[in-house]
Amino acid sequence: MIQLKQANHAPQSLWRRRLPGYAAMGAATLAMALGLGGLMHSRTTVAGTALPLADTDAATYGVSAVYQLDDTTYYVVGSKQGFQSEVQAGVTLDRDGNVLDVKILAQAETDSLGAQCENPEFTAQYQGAAPFTLAGKRYTVTDPATGTAFAAAGSAETDAAPAEAFDPAAWRAGDTSPEAEATRKMYEAGLTLSALNGQPMDDALIPPMDNSAEAVARRKLYAACLSKSAQDGEEQAVPYADWSAEKQAEYKLQAADLTTQGSAADTVSADMTQVDALSGATITSTAVTDIVNNSYFYVTEVLCAE
Questions:
Q1: How far is the CA of 124 from the CAs of 101, 118, 180, in angstroms?
Q2: Which of 4, 87, 88, 301 has the least C-beta neighbours within 10 A?
Q3: Exposed / middle / buried, residue 240 (Cβ in 10 Å: 0-12, 13-18, 19+)
Q4: For 108-127, what is each residue's pLDDT tens digit?
Q5: At residue 27, what are phi and psi to the nearest 5 degrees?
Q6: What is the pLDDT of residues 207-248, one digit of tens each?
């Protein structure tokens, strides 16, 4: 009888059995890191001459680097806070401020919303004469160095219609509520729609703002960017209930573009190029537009100033 001797194989430790898998994971991670590094390098490498950038200009215009590509062309790298991340873009312009190209260099916005700012269909809109404005959105172009606000040419009447001879004190004479008094003051100052249209005061009062627990919760959600209106970059429907009646009235008028603030000597009429904002991502669209406009102001006011 032949006796078979059973081989005695000691069990391998767990880490030895998993070693090949760890090695494969490490190789994949290294390859991914090298690939991402190459991608970022390709995004930030510029075939031009780096120009000196003063700290004050960098802070004022939101610019981190500037390159001269040829005798008449510049490449400006700028950044602006988006909805949930800082958006960085490279803007190519000529010395007259005409935009030739815009590329998003870095962003971490919401995938299906703000992250679409990298889509060439969106960035291709920024072509030609700056400054740019967002079509159909409440967007103000402001020179970061001078604070001058720019309004699209022909977008508003230069002279408001004179109000008819009407004594605001005679409007709802029996109503002495703070809301009524605030409305009378706004009309007298020419800041209500009826005053701007040269009409007597209408019968609509600005409603008092809601101070219920639900309204307070909505305001807190908006402040934390957790409501849809905040995520879309829109104004909150019902803001702060603890404001005075006068401040509430002023807010309502500003929201309706009925105040004279920023529309007199400080506002300059200019031809602007309109771009369409990303759907549901107005804040990100505003950030990109700000970067492009600030790059325009930097080139024309600093690099190519007469």
A1: 7, 10, 50
A2: 4
A3: middle
A4: 998 888 999 999 999 999 99
A5: -65, -40
A6: 445 556 676 677 777 777 777 777 777 666 555 544 555 555
Please state, in angstroms and rounded to a whole number, the distance separating the CA atoms of residues 189 and 165. Answer: 13
Q: Angle 173-171-198 (CA atoms, 0-180°, nearest 5)?
A: 165
Identity of residue 220: K
Model-level pTM?
Answer: 0.55
Token pair for residue 96? 């007259």
Strand segments, DSSP code E, in the chain are 49-50, 63-68, 73-81, 86-94, 98-106, 128-129, 132-134, 141-142, 149-152, 267-270, 273-275
Going by the DSSP 8-state scheme, the letter that residue 20 receives in this structure is H
Residue 35 structure tokens? 């690939």
Q: Which among 80, 88, 112, 126 has a CA at the least distance from the CA of 231?
A: 112
Query: Are 284 and 113 contacting, i.e. CB atoms less than 8 angstroms apart?
Result: yes
Q: How many residues does the chain have?
A: 306
Question: Which residues, other chains included, contact 31 with Cβ-Cβ below 8 Å and sequence gap of 6+?
Answer: none
Residue type (1 letter), 171: W
